[in-house]
Amino acid sequence: MKVKLLLLLPLFLSLQNEWHYNLEEAKNIAQKEHKYILLNFSGSDWCGPCIRMRKEFFESVVFKEMADSELILVNADFPRNKKNQPSAAQQKINDDMADKYNSQGKFPYTLLLDFDGKVLQTWEGFPEESVESFTVEIRNAMYTVRQK
C-alpha cells in the first residue's frame, strides 16, 4: 500500500498548480515558459459562484492537467471578511489589476491573457458548461491566437 501511494505522489505533486498574485511577475514567467495567463477575479469568502468555480473547476484534475502545461494562473481576490484581507501591498496589486481588467467589478471574472497582458478571451460568471468543455474553450482560444 505504501509503495502505491509513493508512486502516486509525483502525479499528485505535479497537479499542485501554483496560483500567483502579481500579474507583472506572472507575465515574466509566462514569457520565459511560453505560456498564457489565466487571470481570475474572485471574492473568496463571499461570492458563491467564485467559491464553486474554485472547487469545481480550478481544483479539478482535468483543469489542473491542462493548466500545468499551458497556463500561469493569477488570482485577484477581493475578500470581505476582515480576517481574510490581503496586505496593503497585495490590495494595491489587486486594485491595479481590477482597474485595468475588471473595472465593472464582475465576480467571478476570468480572462485569458498573453504574456504581454493582452486580453484574448473573457468568461463572466460561473461557467455553464462542464469543466472539460471549459478547458477545451481555453485551449481553443490559445490555439486561435497561435494560428494568427
> What is the name of the CATH architecture?
3-Layer(aba) Sandwich
What name does the CATH topology carry? Glutaredoxin
CATH class: Alpha Beta
What's the number of helices?
A: 6
* Radius of gyration of CA atoms, rounded to a whole number: 16 Å
Average the pLDDT over all residues and give the rounded result: 91
Largest sheet, strands/sense/barrel: 5 strands, mixed
- Class from helix and strand fractions: alpha/beta
- The structural domain count equals 1
N-C termini distance? 50 Å
Helix content: 40-55%
Instruction: Give start-end ranges of low-pLDDT stretches.
Output: 3-15
> DSSP strand (E) fraction?
15-25%
Shape: globular
Strand tally, please?
5
> What would CATH call the homologous superfamily?
Glutaredoxin
* Main β-sheet, spatial strand arrangement: 1-3-2-4-5
Can you write the helix and strand succession as a string? HEHEHHEHEEH
What does this entry look like structurally?
This protein is α/β, with parallel strands linked by helices and 148 residues long. The protein has a single domain (16-147), classed as Glutaredoxin, CATH 3.40.30.10. It has six helices and five strands. The protein has a five-stranded mixed beta sheet with strand order 1-3-2-4-5, with helices on both faces. It is globular, with a radius of gyration of 16 Å.
List the helices and strands and how they pair.
Elements: H1 2-14, E1 19-20, H2 23-33, E2 36-42, H3 48-58, H4 61-70, E3 71-77, H5 88-101, E4 109-113, E5 119-124, H6 131-147
Parallel strand pairs: 1-3, 2-3
Antiparallel strand pairs: 2-4, 4-5
